[in-house]
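Dear support,

I submitted the protein below through the web form. The confirmation email said the job was done, but the results page showed an empty box. After a refresh the structure appeared. I'm attaching both so you can tell me whether what I see now is the final result or a partial one.
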Amino acid sequence: MEKKRWVMLENNPDVMNQLAAKLGLSSELQFYDVYVLDDPEQLAHIPRPALALLVIIPLTPAWDRSRKAEDADKEPYTGSGPNEPVIWFKQTIGHACGSIGLLHSVINGPAVDIIKRDSDLAAIRSLAIPLDMTKRADMLYNSEPFERAHKSIELAGDSDADPSGERDGGHFVSFVKSGGKLWELEGSRKGPLERGSLADDEDVLSPRALDMGIKKIIKLNAEGEGGETLRFSCIALARRP
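What the results page shows now:
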């Protein structure tokens, strides 16, 4: 049987706010555009603390090599249960990386406390907690509410959706703070990646979090062959003003 293959989502606040609302995230939270990473004035429109960063990044040769080297010796992920530091989903649905990135952003860290009770999001999270990596991926693969929510907004956004393309080979990565750690979450890796400790007053947009997360990927690309500028799109999850 042919595996599911969806239309890849656009990474902008309008699209992701619609998806989050359909799944059951409280209207107290929303996604905001992140225009630059180094200018506090250009980040001033985002209420702090920022709870998650959702980034779509092209798979450049330098990043690809780094990912393969990091994952080479890792054993299959075995985390599950209520003491798991973050909930991570292995991606088994083609082009569902945007929707899975949103899940990673809203079912981990402080956003968990603002999920509507009896919502699809709350149900997905509750079902996922006791499952191992494979059963969790199967649960999400067969989740009708998750598929309905994705398909209801797959044509939203500013660019033309192409079910056969991957928006220049982009990968959706979520960065969240949970348990005082910065986590990098992506469904095509071997598991969740702990990137370092953050102080109580540091969020995912703090300088140290950016250095351990998205800027580390930017630096990899700048130092790679050709030294290209990395073109990426980034949005942040935070409370409404």
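Response: this is the final, complete result; the empty box was a page-load delay. Residues 163-168 have pLDDT under 50 and may be disordered.
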